[in-house]
Amino acid sequence: MRTSFDSGRAWLAAAVCAAALLSRAAAQESTFSPADFSFFDRLGEIRVDLDVVEAERESILVECQGFVEVDGSISDPSCVTRHPYVHRRFLSAVLGAVPGQTFIPAVVDGHVVRVFMSFGVLFNCSGASCFAVPIRNHARHLDEYGLAYSAPQPILADDRWYHGFEAKLDWTRAGMPAIGELIRRDRARPPDDSDEARQAPIGYTVTAVVGVDGTARDPELQGPTSAFPAGSRYTKQIARRSLRSLVSISFVPGFYEGRPTEMRFSENGIVFEYP
Questions:
Q1: Is the dihedral of CA 274, 171, 192, 120 positive or negative?
Q2: Cα angle value 46/68/136 (rounded, 5°)
Q3: Is the peptide bond preceding residue 224 cis, with omega within 30 degrees of 0?
Q4: Beta strands in the chain (DSSP E)
Q5: Strands lying side by side in the sheet with 32-33
Q6: Read out DSSP for 233-261?
Q7: Do 127 and 41 meet the contact criterion of CB atoms below 8 Å apart?
Q8: How far apart are CA 268 and CA 266, in angstroms?
Q9: Is the pLDDT of residue 9 over 60?
Q10: What pLDDT does 3 receive?
Q11: What is the pTM of this model?
Q12: Confidence of residue 200 (pLDDT cuts 50, 70, 90)
């Protein structure tokens, strides 16, 4: 005859077993903390006065990327805008401020890790001057999350980027020659046959969905565009390498409202010529 005491023991054993399973599952799940601005000491202090051409826009976004090292410094930063010829003064201001910006390094399972962070500086130009607002993303998910989210961050321990993006790293370390020339010269747009126009890289974009566990899936190539001849074997080779690299590395997942959130990650690649 089964007594209430036996039933109680069975219930207790089941509860202990369930707790052990939950504990084991929790132990197997990684914990993440994304890289972040330590405070807006340099980027948040930027002010740019409007000129006649720029006054047509109420906001201007400068998109930046860089390695956030384990000591909170940033290395190999690069910054671009959608209108680099017109907004060269904004690019110049941000590029000058980024090296002095400090960061909180990313952490995975209690260990500090080196990540590649996508961040931006959004200029509010509703007045006579434009005020800088640093953001932790490139506004790719504006409709879903607004601007208050952290984009996924690739974990890259070596002194390189993903396979297929070597040209981008070389271009960044060379000082982004085309962008730098535009900043130095006082003109709105260079002629098509200028040296800086020839130095400008041709871009493409690859994306992948990054889950809350930091793994990537469903890679996609956004392109080729008119700048990429569809029959270019070189272009397809670089694009395939880029796609494979996105799903072969680990990420600190995107964060929204303090929680890991599944979201699509976008990365731009570049090429300079076709062999």
A1: positive
A2: 55
A3: yes
A4: 32-33, 36-37, 47-49, 59-68, 74-80, 103-104, 106-108, 111-113, 115-124, 129-135, 149-150, 153-154, 202-210, 216-222, 251-252, 254-256, 259-261, 263-271
A5: 32-33, 106-108, 111-113
A6: HHHHHHHHHHHHHHTSS-EEPEEETTEEE
A7: no
A8: 7
A9: no
A10: 52
A11: 0.77
A12: low
* Per-residue buried b or exposed e for 158-184, using 16+ beta carbons within 10 Å of the residue's own CB: eeebbebbebbbebbeeebebbbbbbe
Q: Which residues pair with 62 in a beta bridge?
A: 121
Q: How many CA atoms lie within 13 A of 20 on its CB side?
A: 6
User: Which of 202, 194, 247 minimizes the C-alpha distance to 220?
Assistant: 247
**CA atoms 21, 262, 154, 241: torsion sign:** positive
| Amino acid code (one letter) for 185 | R
Residue 240: count of CB within 10 angstroms of its CB: 14
Domain layout of the chain by residue ranges: 31-271
User: What's the CA gap between 59 and 81, in Å, rounded?
Assistant: 12
153: which 2 tokens? 């961050």
pLDDT of residue 74: 94
pLDDT of residue 34: 97
What pLDDT is stored for residue 152 in this prediction? Answer: 97
Give the separation between CA 224 and CA 159, rounded to whole angstroms: 28
